[in-house]
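Dear support,

We are seeing what looks like truncated structure output for some complexes. This example has two components. We would appreciate it if you could run it in full and send us the complete token output so we can diff it against ours.
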Amino acid sequence: MVELQPFCGIGLTALHGPPDLLPGLPQRPGWAPVAGATAVWTAPRQWLCFHAPGLVLPVAPAQRTPMDGARSLFALRGPLVRELLATILPLDLHPRAFPPGAAAATLGAHLPLLLWLDGETFHLSCARSYGDSLAAALQAAGRGRNLRVRDAVRYSPAPAAG
Amino acid sequence: MTRLATGGLIDRMQPRRFTFDGRGYQGYAGDTLASALLANGLRLVGRSFKYHRPRGIWGLGSEEPNALVELRAGGRQEPNTRATTAELFEGLVAHSQNRWPSLRFDVMAVNGLFGPLLSAGFYYKTFMWPSSFWEKVYEPLIRRAAGLGRAATAPDPDRYERMHAHCDVLVVGAGPAGLAAALAAARSGARVILAEEDFALGGRLLADRQEINGAPALDWVAWVLAELQNLPEVTLLPRTTVFGAFDHGTYGAVQRVADHLPEPPPDMPRQRGWTIVAKRVVLAAGAVERPIAFPGNDRPGVMSAAAVRGYIHRYGALPGRHAVVFTAGDDGLRTATALRDAGAEVTVVDPRPEAPAMPGMRVVAGARVVGTRGRLGLSAVQLDSGERIAADVLAVAGGWNPTLHLSAHQGGRPVWDAAQAAFLPGTPPPGMVVAGAAAGRFTLAACLADGAAAGLQAARDAGHDGRPLDLPQAEDEPAGLRALYHVPGRKAFVDFQHDVTVDDIALAAREGFRSVEHAKRYTTLGMATDQGRTANVVGLAILAEATGRGIAETGTTMFRPPYTPVTIGALAGAQTGRDFRPVRRTPLHAWSARHGASFVDSGAWQRAEWYARPGETGWRDSVDREVLQVRRAAGFCDVSTLGKIEVVGPDAAALLDFVYANTMSTLKPGRIRYGIMLREDGFVLDDGTCARLAKDRFFVTTTTANAARVMQHLEYAHQVLRPELDVAILSVTEAWAQIALAGPQARDVLAQVTQADVSNAALPHMACLDAAFVGGLRGRLYRISFSGELAYEIGVPPEAAEALADRLLAAGAVPYGTEALGVLRIEKGHAGGGELNGQTTAGDLGLGRMLSTTKDFIGRALAQRPALVDPARPVLVGLRGAGLRTGAHLLAPGAAAVTENDLGHVTAACWSPNLQQTIGLALLAEGRDRIGTRIRVFDALRGHDGEAEVAAPVFIDPEGTRTRG
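Here is the complete output from our reference environment:
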């Protein structure tokens, strides 16, 4: 079984600045709860922060760019989640290779994707415009794996204890 | 019936009914179609490719060259299926192929009478004149006469799936070596994938009667599988063929998930294509027995000796009761024993004078088979002594060919081992080790030891330490062999599937095709669907003999993936039909659909092309209405697809000065400038606007088509050329729903939806500001115009797009689509995709004065090349005239329509409802000097030849007063 949770109302901020821009920002591919947001490392000195709409991260305006609504986001969990994701993702998702806290920018179902693992829940994000295609790809991947799709909810980041 | 009363691995409690050529038969679960056909006494199952000769079953697995059938029907019809790998299921429907009107009486068998004429190269020598006949006469006739099965014409109703996997050790083949390798690796804790193309694991242990640890070998197989199945890091993949070795430890495999079922259950894919990334690979794919070429060796009833043994042991099917075993080695003698034990009368024909006596059978030592008899199946075997032996099966053992294909997919060339009379793996791809029979170890004990050692080493190399396996006890059976490839005589077949004979190869050699690659192509040896798995070594030996060289010197042809045929479905997975590629939808997609829009693909984007209203009879009605609405009142267009990039940081202005041909650092916050970027070679890359939102933040727009390219260009300029600049570049295309509002009433409409002051003083042309909108929305306003009208672009967060569109509609504006957008821009003479085609300079587009002379920028130097500043270059002009179509060529009036006279082409054209005429844009040599003259418009593709008037490219409001109003 795999549970698919789509999100709506996704606050998003791109951070760009020095490594110590905010305490706790990951310095390599990975994610961390930072200042009420899920901060995903995307490039040296760049992070994408997923958060509740309206949150303003405590950095100078020149080091943040608001991008609310720019990405679609899905959470997936369940016993067959790695098998489902393996149908579209080329990454090694074995717990030894992709442990909780890991994140990656990758390509799946011909889409550029961001992926991170929070506990046993994978988060998969693509550009908002590709959201319908990613949803369709996940639906197709879920066939035969007892995919249960929940109603979309507003995004709320993981607590700092992560 | 030739089914033995007992024995075999079939489940006799589960009968399976099936039909072959419309006639019903019965087999059992665990049968293949081939074993079931044999068990029902059928030997004739197909016709050969070229001569339509009767053919039976040769082999036991995927190497089968003869028994190709059409399986299933309708959309699931699958041609060229090897009966030896098709698992029998209830209701299976199979047909023989490449015959008419029936398998037993095939009219095209007349081809066989012309065999001497249909030799290698026959087509090339015969069908030469007249050349025009080739495509229309010769090729269709040849294709009709020679061929395989028929592909389904109905859509495939099944679904397919892709799968990615990573492992420490991939073991290919689940015979004794593969099982030992998998077990040794798995016990170390390594992640192991064991892939086996058969539906049952065990390899030759399924087909032979051997002992391991003093018990039947299959007991050991069951014990190993039980342990492997209980190890969490082990994945067993039966029915899975690893078909290719690719770069960096990547392997392609196809899993036949539901091929053994009448229909896949609704949620089960028919097949699954795997991409497996393995740190180490153990290739334990076994070996395939090769034939001996002798006259009549293709007659139904002539079979691989190892296959005959397999049909007896695994399927309890006795291929014949009067058997001759023609063997050049000890392995064939095991088949003789199996036949004898199964109750057949057996004669062994062994070319070795020292051939041992065999109890319960006659052995003819020092003899050879030189021919066979029988019409549609074997009835007798002819020996070189002149003796004729009545027989209904002839088991041929010519030695073993290691299945080394994957070891050679990355360029490793096999090495000839004369002692074993076999090609052995050369240098395999990095990370691969070859074990067992695939490495030339043809006895059981050697295979087990080799596999165990290879598996352990592979695991260790992948970072998992383990203990050596306690080697299972087994014997090395006799494996003596005298190399024998062919016996002289006509109609001695080497490649059964392509009907290539010994004579064909000899002829190729005589005609100069001495290279193995040339001989292959000339004769088609090894080019059929079986890729010469049984044929190639025999063919090479004959070519070597014919050219006076050794086999090692002759070499092999190149091995390439796939190892066995792979369906397109398994490669495509779910990406078929409407899911062939992903699509991008704007935040207003659903809104537009609700308001009558139809959509056009623009790259991956789906854009609203027009919004049809009731009563409009065609797209032109909608587009004309939308254009006139914009010119006379106000309209709004979803332009969210335009690329949007924020360039942020203290050095943002410096970077933009470097990438734009014009200067951006002088732009004041709150102002916008039109800009162009050049490529390094001086041609225009893209155009767009650049808004300065703050001292250290710019908002750059690009065309829809070039959004990714410009982003890449900016990153390249920063990361490679100007890494010292402190700047961040962010694609914000998805963060903004962007709506263009245009028309003389645009300001009035805008004032109804925003609380911002939108007066000309507060928001003049080429200015921007943050704005609050009715309903609490926040966004940005940009006073820019693509249409030539008083116009704005409104940016709001995506989730606010529909609310904004509703308010604009309520305020009196109407939506317009990309077609109207195109008409408006042509009327205004703005460059678009047709003009920004990668071959135009700024000067060509009338933008030459934008090139800064006071700063450096990308493309500056090469833009000054003589060819790029040649005054005779085609430049942007307007055209007026009926029949204008994009792509039409321009010629001087009266000039002949030849390339030398070509003056340019039409880049865009439309009907202008404002001007009530067809207008266009064009790139025309010396175009500015031709304004006011007439030009010939020649469109050979669509049959138009007319004239147009050359005009300035701006048809509407050339002074720009509307824009600034």
